[in-house]
Specification:
Number of domains: 2
Strand order of the largest sheet: 1-6-7-5
Largest sheet: 4 strands, antiparallel
CATH topology of the largest domain: Helicase, Ruva Protein, domain 3
Mean pLDDT: 90
Strand content: 15-25%
Radius of gyration: 20 Å
Number of helices: 6
Structural class: alpha+beta
Shape: elongated
Number of strands: 10
Oligomer: single chain
Helix content: 25-40%
Low-confidence stretches: 216-232
CATH class of the largest domain: Mainly Alpha
DNA sequence: ACTGGCACCTGGGCGC
DNA sequence: TGCGCCCAGGTGCCAG
């Protein structure tokens, strides 16, 4: 389940291998991603030179010298890694982007919730109306507080709303709320500015830490399995329902469901 | 404008 | 051992 840190780690992993490279071939084995890969995808990529990689929310963006941009989402189960044609494609290896160096970027996605697009120009409809990047200076407790005033929904759902802030998935939403000591089911508009300041800082800290950890555990994108690295990170609450809280060491973590997603929190430490 | 709920998909874990 | 059920979850989209 790639969250923002995994996408950023992936970007950093592939960047040195793809930037400056010419794309000499594109092999699409299965077009049935979340949105079918269109025929112009190969046409746009072929023979173009990769200028740079970027990330917006959980979208990985690859700018080409032709003015086009490749947009990749890893969905729930997607991964990207560098390899060579010597390694035969395995099940669910849907796309190869072959580079002049002989290396290739291989897209793997069993559930096919991910997507690959190519657009020409500045932006794409899917990138519009997105909230600020959580690690940017635009994202502050003040901002969260202002946005929350008319929101009666639970604070966890509020921070997972991409129109409010991008890149906060279920795992890190749970972790950030624990770190900030806020109950996930509290209405967003009933939380003070002071506590939103703590929450914004927690979101930044949790994501930044995961990127750092990912950077150390996922250094090898060549020949590695390309798997996400948050398992290496010690999660405080996610996946620990029924276990004792690591902070108070007394209360057993409570697990509930919010919009059919698992929410785990400590009834003593989170209010 | 805001909210809740659904669909998409496969692998893995579980109970029987 | 094997079968079948259920679940995980990002996010675009729809209905209320």
């Amino acid at each position: 389940m790639p969250e923002l840190p995994e996408v950023e780690t992936t970007r950093r992993g592939i960047a040195p291998h793809v930037e400056g490279q010419r794309i000499v071939n594109v092999i699409v084995r299965d077009r049935r991603l979340r949105w079918p890969i269109t025929q112009d995808f190969e046409r746009h990529l072929s023979q173009a030179i990769i200028i740079q990689t970027r990330r917006r929310a959980k979208y990985l963006l690859i700018d080409l010298d032709s003015g086009a941009t490749v947009m990749i989402h890893l969905g729930m189960s997607g991964s990207l890694r560098m390899t060579t044609a010597n390694e035969l494609p395995r099940k669910h290896d849907h796309v190869d982007v072959v580079l002049e160096s002989g290396m290739l970027l291989r897209y793997h996605d069993p559930r096919r919730f991910g997507s690959m697009h190519c657009f020409v120009g500045q932006s794409h409809a899917l990138l519009e109306h997105l909230g600020p990047e959580p690690l940017s200076a635009d994202f502050t407790g003040e901002y969260l507080f202002q946005q929350s005033r008319k929101r009666g929904s639970a604070v966890k759902l509020f921070i997972m709303d991409a129109k409010i802030v991008v890149g906060v998935g279920n795992i890190y939403a749970n972790e950030a709320l624990f770190m900030a000591g806020i109950r996930p089911d509290r209405p967003a508009n009933g939380i003070s500015k002071k506590r939103y300041m703590a929450l914004a800082e927690s979101i930044k800290a949790v994501l930044a830490n995961a990127i750092e950890v990912g950077g150390t555990t996922l250094r090898d994108f060549v020949g590695g399995d390309g798997k996400a690295g948050y398992f290496a990170q010690s999660l405080q609450v996610y996946g620990r329902g029924g276990d004792r809280c690591k902070r108070c060491k007394v209360t057993r973590l409570r697990e509930i469901r919010q919009s059919s997603r698992a929410t785990v929190y400590c009834t003593r430490c989170q209010r």
